Amino acid sequence: MRRVRLLVLNAALGPLDYRVPAGMAVEPGSLVIAPLGPRQVLGIVWEAERLPATEVPDARLRPLLEALPVPPLAAPLRRLIEWTADYYCASLAGVARMALGSLAALRGGATTTEYRLTGEVPARLTPQRAVALDALHDEQGSLRELAERAGVSEAVLRGLVGAGALEPVTVDTDRPFPPADPAHAQPDLSADQQEAADLFVEAVQAGTFQPFLLDGVTGSGKTECYFEGIAAAIATGRQVLVLLPEIALTQNFLRRFEARFGVPPVLWHSNLKASERRRAWRAIVRGGDHGGAQVVVGARSALFLPYARLGLIVVDEAHEVSFKQDDGVRYNARDVAVIRARFEGIPVILASATPALESMQLAEAGVYRRIALAARFGGAQLPAIEVVDLRVAQPERQHWLSPPLVKALKDRLLRGEQSLLFLNRRGYAPLTLCRHCGYRFQCPNCTAWLVEHRLSRRLACHHCGHEVPTPEACPECATPDCMVACGPGVERIADEVAERFPEARLAVVTSDTLNSPGKIGEFVETVEAGMVDVIVGTQLVTKGYHFPELTLVGVIDADLGLEGGDLRAGERTYQQIAQVAGRAGRGEKPGEVLIQTRHPEAPVIAALASGDRDAFYQAEAESRRDAGAPPFGRWAAIIVSSEDEAEARDAARAIGGCAPRLPDLMVLGPAPAPMALLRGRHRYRLLVNARRSVQVQAIIREWLGGLTFPPGVRVAVDVDPYSFV
Ligand SMILES: Nc1ncnc2c1ncn2[C@@H]1O[C@H](COP(=O)(O)OP(=O)(O)OP(=O)(O)O)[C@@H](O)[C@H]1O
Ligand SMILES: [Zn+2]
Questions:
Q1: Of the candidates 439, 461, 487, which is a domain's last residue?
Q2: Are 538 and 641 in the same domain?
Q3: 219 lines ligand 1 (CB under 6 A)
Q4: How many angstroms separate the CA atoms of 143 and 132, rounded?
C-alpha cells in the first residue's frame, strides 16, 4: 500500500496522512483533494521526512479522493515554501497558499462566460441601469465583477442581459498568450549599459544562481539593461518574473515592455478578474513555450507562483518598502526573491537608484555583484538640487509654497515646462478641528486623525477606511461652519497653486485619483501631450515615470518623513527625495529641485544637497551598527492584539513575562504600540533585538509555542520588521 503525507491548506490543521488509491499517480508536490471528516480539503503531497507528524496506522488511513490535473509543485518551490515559513515564523499552509493563487485554475482549463455591453440602450432606462451602462464601457467580466465595478446589484445587470444591452461572451481560460519577440526593437546601448546587459545575458545563459545589484542613477536606463537579460531568457525558452512595488507602476512598465518585445507581458496582481487570474496562473504553470507565460510582471504575490521554467527574476525599485508585506505572511519579497533564485539556480537582479542599506552591505560583502550606472542616458544631466530653509524663506500664512518655489514655478509656466510638487499626504488636510471648542476628528477604530478629502467632501481614516461626510457643524459644540483645516495635503497644495496661477493646468496624483490602469494611462498621456503644467502628487509619482518636459521638482516638506523617528526614517527620506528629484530634467532641458525644510542641517538633507550618497550611507551604516540594527543585528517584532484592551495587555504581559534570557538577545517591551488602536483592535508590541548569529526564529517559536491565549487574541511575529507603528 502507498501512503502519502499532505501539507493541508488550512493553517489550523497539521500534516495528515492518506492512502493513495490504486490507479492514482501522485508524487511530492502533487495537488490533491482528501477527505476530512465529512468535508474535503485541498492538500499538497510533501516529503514525509520533511514534515514530521504522528504516524497513523495503515488500517486507519483514508484514501485520497482525487489528484488535480495540474503539474506538481517543483522541489525548488517546495524548499522556498519551507524556507519562508521557517524564516518568517509563518505557517506552511499560509505560504503554500500564495503559490496557488487561483483555486479555480487547479480544476483544469475551461471556458467561462463573461458579459459586455452590446451598445444597445434598453427601452426602459432606470437610473440604476443608466449608471451601469455608463460605468461598463470597455469592461468585460462576470456579472458579479461587473456589478461591483458599476456599483449596482447583479439583478440590475441580469435585467440588462434580458433587455439585450449586455451580451454573454465565452472565454477560454487556456487561450494562449502571444509570444514576445526578443529582437523586436533592440536599443543601441551606451557602453556602460552594454557592459551591464552583457553580464545579465551571460548569467541567464549560464543558468546558475547569481545575485546582481543594478545600482544606476535615475534615468540611467536600468530598465533597458535588464530587458536584455529578459530577451536572453525568452530566446532560450525560460520564464522571467519582474516584481514591481506597486500596481500603479505596471501600466508604465507595460508600455515599455510592449515597445521592446512587441507584446504585453502577463500581469499578476490582486486586481485581476477571476478569469484573468485563472488564465495567467495556468499559463505560468505551462511554461514559456506554446502560448504560456514568458514574462510575468506583478506585485509581490507573483513571487510564489509555480513557474514551470524560471530563468531570471528582476526586482525593480528594489529599495521600496512596499515589498514588505505587513499582514498574513509577513515577508519581504525582495529578500525572498533572492532566496527563490538560489533554490532555482538562476540569476536575480535588484534594480534601484537608491538601494537599501541592506543591499549595499551585501554588495560590499561580495554576496551581490554590484553594477553601477553613474550617468543618465543620452547626455541628460542629473538635476541641480537646492535647499530652501523655510525659517528664512517663509511661505505666507496658511500657505506652503516658499517664495523661491513660487518663482521657480512661475518661470516654468512662462517657459511652458512642467513642474512636479511632492507631498506625501493624501487629501486636503491631515487634521481638522473646531475653532470654537477644539474638538478634533478622530477615527473611532484607530489611533489616527481623520483626514479631510475636500474633493469627495469626506473625512477619512487612512488606516481602516472609516469615512464620514464632512459635517456642517461641530459634532461636539454644534457651532456651524467652525471647522479649521490644519496642515496641508496634496489637495490643499493644488488649491494654493490654482490660487496663485489660475491659468495653470493641474493634475493631482494620489491613490485616490489614480486608482485604475485606465486612469494611470490617461494621466501619463495627458502629461506627455503637454496638457498638464503642474503635477501635485504623493509618493505614487516619485518613481518610474519619465516626462522629458518636466524640469522642476518641489519637495513641499522634506521633514515629514523624519518625524516618526524609526530607524529607517533617514534612509527612507533620502530615497524618496532622491527618487522624486530624479523625475526632473530627464530630457534635454536641465532639471532643478527645490527641497523645502526647517532642518537644512539634518544629515539626510545635507547629503541630498551635496549629492554625496556614499557619505550618507556610511553615516547611516555607522548608526545602525551602534544600535545593533539591521543589517548588523537582527530585529523581530511581536505584535499582540485584541478587540479587548485588557485581554491584549494581559497576553502581551504574559509573553513578556516568559521572555528568554539569553546572551546576545534583548527583549524590549511590551509597550502599547504607537498605533495603540488599529481597525478596532488594541495593540501591544515587543521588540527582539539580537546579534546576527542568533537563531531568533527558533527562539521565538519555542518561546511562544509554550503559551496559550484566549481566542480573541492575535499574536503576530514580524521578522525584519519595516513598520513600527
Ligand atoms: N539605450 C537606450 N536607447 C534609447 N533610449 C534609452 C536607452 N537607455 C535609456 N533610454 C531611455 O531613457 C529613459 C530613462 O531610462 P529608464 O527609465 O530605464 O531609467 P531608469 O534607470 O529606470 O530610471 P529611474 O530609476 O529614474 O526610473 C527612458 O525613456 C528610456 O527609454
Ligand atoms: Zn481608522
A1: 487
A2: no
A3: yes
A4: 11
Amino acid sitting at position 687 = L
* Domain end position, chosen among 595, 620, 645: 620
Q: How far is the CA of 328 from the centre of ligand 2 (A)?
A: 19
Over residues 618-664, the pLDDT tens digits come to 989 998 898 888 889 999 999 999 999 999 999 999 999 999 999 89
For residues 372 and 385, membership in a common domain is answered with: no
Outline where 510-633 has alpha helix (H): 517-528, 569-581, 603-610, 613-627
Strands (E), 467-620: 467-469, 483-486, 506-509, 534-537, 550-555, 592-597
* Residue 466 placed within a domain: yes
CATH number of the domain to which 671 belongs: 3.30.70.600
Is position 464 annotated in a ligand binding site?
yes
* pLDDT tens string 241-252: 999 998 878 888
Residue 307, ligand 1, Cβ within 6 A: no
What's the CATH code of the domain at 313?
Answer: 3.40.50.300
pTM value is: 0.91
Residue 462 is classified by DSSP as T
List all residues 6 or more positions away from 579 whose beta carbon is below 8 Å from its beta carbon. 218, 353, 354, 542, 543
CA 278 – CA 64 distance, rounded (Å): 25
On whether residue 26 sits in a domain, the answer given is yes
What φ, ψ does residue 7 adopt, rounded to 5°? -85, 110
Q: The complex's ipTM? A: 0.96
Q: Is the pLDDT of residue 368 over 90?
A: yes
**Ligand number, closest to the Cα atom of 580:** 1
Neighbours of 37 (CB within 10 A): 7
Q: How far is residue 218's CA from residue 441's CA, in Å, rounded to a whole number?
A: 40
Ligand 1 lined by 379 (C-beta under 6 Å): no
Query: Does one domain contain both 470 and 541?
Result: no
Give residue 83's pLDDT band: very low, low, confident or very high (50, 70, 90). Answer: very high
- Let me know whether 517 and 594 are in one domain: yes
CA distance readout (Å), 155 to 126, 130, 158, 274, 482: 13, 14, 5, 20, 44
The C-alpha angle with vertex 489 and arms to 486 and 495, in degrees rounded to 5, equals 95
CA-nearest residue for atom 14, ligand 1, is 219
216 lines ligand 1 (CB under 6 A): yes
| pLDDT range class, residue 305, cuts 50, 70, 90 | very high
**What are the cell numbers at 450?**
481623520
Largest CA distance in the chain: 86
Q: What domain count does the chain have?
A: 6
On whether the CB atoms of residues 304 and 284 are closer than 8 A, the answer is no
Q: Is the pLDDT of residue 123 over 90?
A: no
CATH number at residue 164: 1.10.10
Determine, yes or no, domain membership for 654.
yes
Domain enclosing residue 121, as ranges: 111-172
DSSP 424-464: S--SSBSEEEETTT--B-B-SSSSSBPEEETTTTEEE-TTT
Give me the pLDDT at residue 1, please.
66
Task: Let me know if residue 548 belongs to a domain.
Answer: yes
Which ligand is closest in space to the CA of residue 460?
2
Report the alpha-carbon distance of residue 278 to residue 24 in Å, rounded: 25
**Residue 477 marked as a ligand binder:** yes
Examine the domain organization and report whether 309 and 452 are in the same domain: no
Is residue 499 located within the same domain as residue 476? no
Considering the domain architecture, whether residues 432 and 418 belong to the same structural domain is answered as: no
User: Phi, psi at residue 8, to the nearest 5°?
Assistant: -90, 135
Q: How far is CA 70 from the centre of its chain?
A: 29
State whether 128 and 226 are in the same domain.
no
Q: Is the CB of 188 under 6 A from ligand 1?
A: yes
The ligand whose atoms approach the alpha carbon of 544 most closely is 1
